[in-house]
Amino acid sequence: MTPKGTYARIYAVVRRIPRGRVATYGGVARLAGLAGHARQVGYALSNLPTGSTVPWHRVINAQGRLSLERVASSSGTTQRIRLVAEGVTVDAGGRVSLTRFGWPAARKR
DNA sequence: CCACTGACGAGTG
DNA sequence: GCACTCGCCAGTG
Question: Quick one: which of A14, A28, A84, A109 is 20 to 30 A from A35 by CA?
Fold first, then answer.
C-alpha cells in the first residue's frame, strides 16, 4: 500500500477526537495536513483494518450527518448507537448538531 | 497513461 | 432542509 503516510496521519487525528464530540471529514483532513482531501479521509476509514482502536464513529460529514447512513450500511446503526452512548445527540434522520458537538469548535465561515 | 470509483465539500435553486 | 452540479484527489484495474 502505498506509503502509510496518508492513512497514518488521518488515523492519528481521528484518535485525537475527544469523547462526546464529532469531527467532519474536511476538518480531519485539514488537521492532518491534507486540506481538500476530505474524500481520502473517508477512503482511509473504509480501509480501516479490523481491530483498530480508531473511533471512526466520531467522524461525520460537514452536513452533520452519519456518512454510513448515506450508503445504507449496517455499520451505520453501530455508529449512531456509539455516538449516543457517548452523549452525542443524534437526530432520527441521523443528523448531529455540529454547532454543539462539532470538533474543533464549529464557527461561522 | 487512461478511466472509473468514492465513509466528501461547497455553491445554487 | 433537499436535490443537483462541479471540484478535489488517492486508489484500483
Answer: A84
Instruction: Please give residues of chain A from 12 to 41 whose alpha-adjacent beta carbon (CB) lies under 7 Å from any atom of strand B.
Output: 24-26, 38-41
Strand B bases near protein CB (under 7 Å) are: 6-11
d(CA A22, CA A96): 9
pLDDT (tens digit, 9 = 90+) per residue, A3-20?
567 888 999 999 999 999
Check whether residue A108 has its CB closer than 7 Å to nucleic acid strand B: no
Q: In whole angstroms, what is the distance from residue A1 CA to residue A95 CA?
A: 34
Q: Which residues 70-99 in chain A have a CB closer than 7 A to strand B? A: 70-71, 73, 75, 79
| pLDDT higher than threshold 70 for residue A1 | no
Q: What is the pLDDT of residue A106?
A: 76
SS3 at position A51: coil
Mean pLDDT, chain A, integer: 88
